[in-house]
Amino acid sequence: MTNVLRRTRPLGGASSEPPRLPAEIDLAKLSERKVLPLRHPAQWVLTIVVLVLVVNFGQTLFTNSEWGWSKLGTWLFNPAILTGIRLTLLATVISAVVSFVAGILVALARLSRNPVLSTLSWLYVWVFRSLPLILVLIFLYNLGNLYPSIGIGIPFGPQFQVRTVSVLTDLTLGVVGLSLSEVAFSSEIVRAGLLAVDQGQHEAAKALGIPRRRQFTRIVLPQALRSIVPAYVNQIVGLLKGSSLLFYVSLLDLFGVVQSLGSTYPTDIIQLLVVASIWYLVFTSVISIIQFYVERYYARGAFRVLPPTPMQRVRRALGRSVAPFSPAAPASTTSLREDAR
Amino acid sequence: MSLAVEIHHATKSYGERNVLDGIDLTVEQGSVTVILGPSGSGKSTLLRAINHLEKLDEGYVRVDGELIGVSVHGERFRELSERAILKQRARIGFVFQAFNLFPHLTILENVVEAPLSQGLPSSEAKARARTLLTRVGLADKEDAYPRQLSGGQQQRVAIARALALEPSVILFDEPTSALDPELVGEVLAVIRGLAGSGTTLIVVTHELGFAREVGDHLVFIDAGRIVEQGPPSELLDNPRHQRTRDFLSSVL
After folding, report:
1. Do B96 and A209 touch (CB under 8 A)?
2. Domains defined for chain A, CATH in brackets
3. How much is the ipTM here?
4. Where are the domains of chain B?
5. B113–A208: do the CB atoms touch at under 8 Å?
6. Which long-range contacts (CB under 8 A, 24 or more apart) does A279-286 make?
């Protein structure tokens, strides 16, 4: 029997014959039974190893008193920490909005038929994508030495001028620095999104005589945003963390406050770092939740049926235990309609 | 009968290749003109030149007497501004082979989009769109998204969308070529319903049966030139040129 079932490797492609089953096996009888799933023993071993490591680490969280969990609560909402959070959030949010809008403009300039605009846009991206953020920040910090006053005006004509130091205050310096570098990346994300929109969409919009601005805002951009949003949110998370570099130009953001408190209270440095970690985790989580719903909004029409939200999944799981045979499709069709409104 | 479309000396080349080689064609108001020809013959380019999606190197197109995409500037034609061209296009409907519905908008939003952008009040645009959707048999689909519809349904929405601006001419660029065979009929039925409604139709297609039944005037194009043209009975049953005969026998 084993002899018959043994897989024989064909010598040539043409002479290969399918393996034959022994005659005594009753296929008709087997076909009435459920097919057994494939077993994965290696996966089980690996899972156990990983679990052991995780439990080991988890244990140290309780047994190692250096973590000092009791002190955590006092630092978490410390007023100094909260002012740091304020700067971090303000700098991140303002820079994120500025870079998004400016990113669209730089991307449009790059895609425009005007060679001056497109070259300038390319140059900008080239420069600011190349420079490390910290270098840009320190450069701005010292800008007062290079240009004691900055202004705008007609070349060699009348000028409007202000003192550099008075303009580049804490938050402004942070926002300008972060945005300068962020725009270089966001514009590339926007450009990629715009290029991903099917040429037929542009043609249809043109053929319908839709005015140019409306073609962009109503037809092209919403479709581009579908691919822009995930990449741009990633960029915002980078921005949030990048804002910790503001510490190096003497700005007290969340990380900066933690660093300076750490030198005042050197015994609490671990707790302070944990507090900062918790806050960064919280912000990133909030961003991720917002991202989920924004992505979902721009995915409307992209699928025949939208995948359910986590809440809908929970509700459906609960509903299933009550009515096990309720079909899933109608519920998700309704959710699609809800999203459209 | 007055002329809806007049094409004179339409010429266009991509590098060395002459896509359109001096085409002259007139289309009567309210008639159905069917353009036939092998792939690469220039028939789609000709159609796209009518609403200026393709610019001509030489020659002109007039729709209802108005020059499309250009104005007379001394001794020559000069390209119009994009804004002016967009305005002209509102009077010329276009139906694409690949439908090109806006996938992020519902069916109703697709149909009202162009009228809204022309400043039609929302309630009026919606009422008009609903009438058109009923006309193409899709009144119950207005809240669906294009990808939830079959190809035939999508193309019928695309026709409703083109009709929403009440154009005097509608151009169809191989409207059934991207469809499964069993869906072709429903789209042709909608186009057939438009014939004789006063709207001028120009259709590029490979459906000879449709051309014979609905077409008033057939045009056979090859290598950027009109080989012959005439009523369906003449062109399909008694083609005068060998080129036409070869094409017809290859399509059948």
Report:
1. no
2. 79-153+160-301 (1.10.3720.10), 303-336 (no CATH)
3. 0.92
4. 98-166
5. yes
6. A279/A81, A279/A85, A279/A254, A280/A240, A280/A241, A280/A254, A283/A88, A283/A89, A283/A92, A283/A240, A284/A237, A284/A240
Position A336 confidence tier, pLDDT thresholds 50, 70, 90: very low
Place of tokens 């969409």: A201
Q: How far A102 CA sits from the closest chain B CA (Å)?
A: 25
Model pLDDT, residue A329: 42
Nearest CA to A187 among A240, A123, A136?
A: A123
Contact B96 A204 (CB under 8 A): yes
Residue A63 Rama label (left phi>0; alpha psi -120 to 50; beta): alpha
Which stretches of chain B drop beneath a pLDDT of 50? none
pLDDT digits (tens, 9 = 90+) for B70-113: 999 999 999 999 999 999 998 999 999 999 999 999 999 999 99
Q: Strand B217-222 vs strand B200-204: parallel, antiparallel, or unpaired?
A: unpaired
| pLDDT band, very low/low/confident/very high, at A83 (cuts 50, 70, 90) | very high
Instruction: Report the candidate in B89, B107, B116, B144 with the shortest Cα–Cα distance to residue A218.
Output: B116
Q: Are strands B169-173 and B200-204 parallel, antiparallel or unpaired?
A: parallel
- Taking the C-alpha atoms of residue A189 and residue A193, their distance in angstroms, rounded to an integer, is 6
Q: Looking at beta carbons, which residues of chain A come within 8 Å of B175?
A: none
pLDDT at res. A322:
53
